[in-house]
Amino acid sequence: MDDVLLFLSAGRAARRIRDGELTVVDYVTAVLDAAEASQATLNAFVTICRDDALSDAKGADDAITSGAKTGPLHGIPVSVKDMIPVAGLPNRNGSLTCEKDVPEHDAPSVRRLRAAGAIVIGKTTTPEFGHKGLTDSLLSGTTRNPWDLYRTPGGSSGGAAAAAAAGIGPLALGTDGAGSIRGPSATCGLVGLKPTHGMVPHPARSDPFGNQSSTGPMTRTVADAAAMLRVMAGPDTSDPWSMGRGRVRKPSFEGENLAGLHIGYAETMANPEIAPDVAANARACLDQFEMLGARVEPIDDSFDWAEEAGRVLYQAAIHHAVAPLLPEWKDRLSPSYIAFAEWGAVWTAGDILDAQAARGDLYERVQELFGKFDVLMSPTTACTALSADFDAAGDVVINGKPCGITRQSWTAYQYPFNLTGNPALTVPSGFGDDGLPTGLQIVGPWWAEPLCLTLGYILEARRPWADKRPPRDNRGLG
Questions:
Q1: Rounded to whole angstroms, what are the CA distances from 201 to 14, 37, 171, 225, 359?
Q2: Nearest-CA neighbor of 453 among 300, 233, 244, 235?
Q3: Is residue 158 packed enough to be buried (19+ CB in 10 Å), middle (13-18) or exposed (0-12)?
């Protein structure tokens, strides 16, 4: 199977399709073949839509032949996390409880990707209801990292990350409620964007006004992430936050001159430890920005990132979701999902209200940081990928020290910006001592996606990553 074809960027593939150098049927067939071949090793998909995708691919080729107007993503394969509705496909949410959940309509993000010409190739795996930063479930088994099959791709958009990193489509669509786009993207060597709250409509059934999750792109290049964002962004009545979308802040750099850019850097947040190789890669990225004229200043170590408040809100919500399922489904729910729910059961209504107030305080403190800094940066994870069978209810050990559960340790950099709504982009920062990818997180003011993406693009140009590929054997290609 042709790796050159599989690892085309979406932008380059779209040009080849427009120029008649590549048929959509040939391209989509190659991606579908790779998806199916990889299932025995990566297990990134819960559903592969071969018949529908090939039918759509033929229609895309016919449109090219007839001279019909085409969209910017015409003929480009995209995978969709199995928590995002795709019309006619089961939306299983990684759970045995959702076998009968078959939506009649696409989510706004999927609808807009299709309108731009993208072709859905399948639904990617997720832990049960996206509850943790690893991807395994009783429904679909364990999903593995294409760089090392003994490691996790992260979660909860782990299937999406594994697929994109393995060359199974240049575009993947994930969700991020506490880092679920950024963690897997960093762990698998991808670009991943959690947009500003409301930039991309993300309907929430339970509480559309209290929703802190986002839909966003997971890609191998910054340009592809930007292309996905452009077609998905915009108001939709299904998401009240999208109706108030503000003005997008445009960066004002000329070329690669970053003179005057003030970067606030947090080497740790709520996590007590960071692996030396991760820290070294982040600092190497910062060095590149400094060489271009940016000024980097550490954020005060005493800054309160509201870890407990975030955990209260997260675990209490899981308890509320699990409680009605227990009578019928207790023996068919993930043990870690039940454990998280049991932790959430201890929080009182007063605790939840206090946590909501603490979230408001964190929002104000973070916006104050943007009165001083133009952008915030940090590592995306505190160490490289955990083992594929890691118990999400257990302690993560970093530098030989137990550091608490994943959100207190490994992924502590991610959840604060779900609480505050700021856009947060992860880009590859290098590889750890174990050969696995690491990531740098770039956080901007509200609506500053162009700034974050521009800085990511500059770093990509100076420290390229998209030419690096996981082993073929791990991808089932021999």
A1: 25, 33, 18, 16, 22
A2: 233
A3: buried
pTM score of the predicted model: 0.97
**Section 57-80 average pLDDT:** 97
Cβ proximity of 85 and 103 under 8 Å: yes
Residue type, 385: A
**Domains, the chain, ordered by start:** 3-475 (3.90.1300.10)
Q: Which residue has the tokens 């083992």?
A: 387
Q: What average pLDDT does range 175-191 have in this prediction?
A: 98
Q: Which residues make beta-bridge pairs with 443?
A: 376, 424
| pLDDT of 245 strictly over 90 | no
CA-closest candidate to residue 158, choices 145, 177, 139: 145
Percent above pLDDT 90 for the chain:
92
Instruction: Spell out the residues 6+ positions from residue 355 whose beta carbon is closer than 8 angstroms to its own.
Output: 308, 309, 310, 312, 313, 316, 347
pLDDT value, residue 205: 72
Find the helix or strand (DSSP H, E) in which 405 lies.
none
Of the candidates 1, 104, 114, the one whose C-alpha atom is nearest the C-alpha of residue 60 is 114
Query: Where in the sequence numbering do the catalytic residues fall?
Result: 81, 156, 180
Lowest mean pLDDT among 85-89, 101-105, 254-258: 254-258
Q: Distance between terminal CA atoms of the chain?
A: 9
Query: Is the pLDDT at 247 greater than 70, yes or no?
Result: no
Alpha helices in 221-348 (DSSP H): 222-232, 276-291, 307-322, 326-329, 335-344
What confidence score (pLDDT) does residue 218 get? 98
pLDDT given at position 249: 60
